[in-house]
Amino acid sequence: xxxxxxxxxxxxxxxxxxxxxxxxxxxxxxxxxxxxxxxxxxxxxxxxxxxxxxxxxxxxxxxxxxxxxxxxxxxxxxxxxxxxxxxxxxxxxxxxxxxxxxxxxxxxxxxxxxxxxxxxxxxxxxxxxxxxxxxxxxxxxxxxxxxxxxxxxxxxxxxxxxxxxxxxxxxxxxxxxxxxxxxxxxxxxxxxxxxxxxxxxxxxxxxxxxxxxxxxxxxxxxxxxxxxxxxxxxxxxxxxxxxxxxxxxxxxxxxxxxxxxxxxxxxxxxxxxxxxxxxxxxxxxxxxxxxxxxxxxxxxxxxxxxxxxxxxxxxxxxxxxxxxxxxxxxxxxxxxxxxxxxxxxxxxxxxxxxxxxxxxxxxxxxxxxxxxxxxxxxxxxxxxxxxxxxxxxxxxxxxxxxxxxxxxxxxxxxxxxxxxxxxxxxxxxxxxxxxxxxxxxxxxxxxxxxxxxxxxxxxxxxxxxxxxxxxxxxxxxxxxxxxxxxxxxxxxxxxxxxxxxxxxxxxxxxxxxxx
Length: 515
What we know:
Elements: H1 3-7, H2 21-29, H3 38-44, H4 47-60, E1 71-80, H5 81-87, E2 95-97, H6 119-147, H7 156-171, E3 180-188, H8 189-200, H9 205-219, H10 227-240, H11 242-252, H12 270-287, E4 298-300, H13 307-316, H14 324-332, H15 336-345, E5 366-373, H16 374-380, E6 387-390, H17 416-435, E7 451-458, H18 460-470, H19 477-493
Antiparallel strand pairs: 1-3, 2-3, 4-5, 5-7, 6-7
Helix pairs in contact: 6-7, 6-17, 8-9, 10-11, 13-14, 13-15, 18-19
């Protein structure tokens, strides 16, 4: 071994387990201020020192990257689909939710807002949608079995399971946004802080309540999966040596608070709430109740407009129901000074540590204005490596009909009338609540088949990834169609790049037993 090798010992790599998230974040942050090893740092740290350090460097000096180092798992159970969409709307988010493709939501229950005397009408509307969901699911399963016989090489339970999933793909269009779901997330403390702050700013009371529960969950003792086993072990040790048992209990049974310091100051985001009000007003003033122009499922925007026009249009887009192209045509006609005023609306309320509104993420070469059903959008929503601008829920765009090439249609299954009646009844319930003084509660009545509009901005690699992944035959036919339209739009604008896509024509009938 050379002298240089003796002076430079081999690289040491080891995994770490058992440290509280904030303690671990502090220990990692110390690399920038101390020559201690991770083991040495963790051995000398106390919770008091951690809190003191974070109060100084995180809150006073704004070193927010420290919170990136503390990762915290959460379970959020029995929340509405509407709330779940808001909760996961983070670009730095990891988690999983109950799937409407593989689980029967008939007995999931639903969220009921505080409606007073309107509650019975709301409940009747939700119950009617669940009944339609159940009826269409069962009858579509019968139609599928009639159309697709059991292959000799397939086990009956696999056949039943696969066709049930296909039936759920159709039935889920009737699930209202009030439907209860559950999800798990693993986020770092910085994402948690911005998530809690954003959710506290929501227009929905349910979402604001969940935000408060998230903050409490991060500051109170976490549920310990090992607690019961540790308790038994401590009792056994105590029976032999009370002193050792006491020390074991102190080490193994101590309450663990995941992020008591990093999220304790998370509050409603005044920047977002104030900007939302002013930008909503500005969009309404600009468009002056113009009718909404017809738009394709996927519209790939050209990249010719100046950055100022894109910024102004993007700022207004989440606060109205117009397509990006129609909105942009109005914005482009404004004077340079008015464009500057609109852009400044997006920054005038920004606090010292506020990140810019998502709409300022501009300059992406590929921008897709997408109009699709809410259920399919929820799958597209999972793609984090792009910028997504979401518009509010509305009945203005109508609803989709579940159509899968090779699968019995609603008409062929004798379900067209039932589906149409259920959708129309749901929209009527939505309008009744919206127009009778309960606009916050109205969206809960909208079914997942309702069309919603969203803008996706991305680079070429992400467009190719989404188109390839979401067009696969195992995917839901809703987003398969959108992925195909994304590919066709890129092909039309950049024909030389089309051969790079490994994509299947979604208009071709598929093997419905392939999943």
